[in-house]
Design brief:
The protein is α+β, with helices and mostly antiparallel strands and 169 residues long. Helix content is 28%, strand content 43%. The protein has helices spanning 2-20, 140-168; strands at 27-35, 42-50, 57-63, 66-71, 75-84, 89-96, 102-112, 115-120, 129-135. It has a five-stranded antiparallel sheet, with no helix packed on it. Strands 3-6-1-9 form a four-stranded antiparallel sheet, with no helix packed on it. A hairpin with a 3-residue loop joins strand 4 and strand 5. Helix 1 (2-20) runs antiparallel to helix 2 (140-168). The protein is rod-shaped, with a radius of gyration of 28 Å. The two termini are 20 Å apart.
């Protein structure tokens, strides 16, 4: 009888842990480095990616200082606070739902003879490099439920031992 009760308590704690824990979707952070080899100062950069598994989020321009944004679901927009010198390096990161992803296209925003223009990114000449690493997300709800369930199981075990000693006396 005691073993059945302990088994039921353990089963209830495990079921509660899996039933109430919110499943998390693995995400990946991609870091991109690219150099402006257009021989013109760039005001911004737009890149398009495939295989992101939904919308790109949490875009961060690491160097140089500037403004970031997402256009659509798979395009990263960067606007530099001051024009990037020719040959200057841009490093940014973003979060996507899946990896591996691939670079589709990109354009540098430049000014030619007083007019705004774009120059296509040449991934080879511009030295495009990017890598994705998974973001680990702890599940505190799951762990706390497991601890509560195990504490209850140990308490039940001690209660049944005390009850058995009283019955023997």
């Amino acid at each position: 009888m005691q073993r059945r009760i302990m088994f039921l308590a353990l089963a209830a704690s495990v079921i509660a842990t899996f039933a109430l824990a919110t499943p998390t979707q693995a995400s990946y952070i991609t870091t991109v480095t690219i150099a402006d080899n257009t021989s013109l100062p760039a005001n911004g950069l737009d890149t398009t990616w495939s295989g992101v598994g939904g919308s790109i989020t949490d875009v961060q321009l690491l160097t140089p200082a500037g403004v970031t944004g997402v256009i659509g679901t798979d395009t990263v927009h960067l606007a530099f606070n001051s024009p990037l010198v020719a040959g200057g390096i841009v490093t940014f990161s973003f979060v996507s739902a899946t990896a591996p992803i691939s670079f589709v296209s990109g354009v540098w925003a430049v000014t030619l003879a007083g007019r705004d223009a774009t120059v296509d990114v040449n991934s080879t000449l511009d030295g495009l490099q990017f890598s994705s690493v998974p973001i680990t997300v702890p599940e505190p709800e799951s762990m706390s439920l497991l601890i509560v369930g195990l504490a209850g199981l140990l308490g039940l075990r001690n209660w049944t031992k005390r009850r058995a000693k009283v019955a023997q006396a």
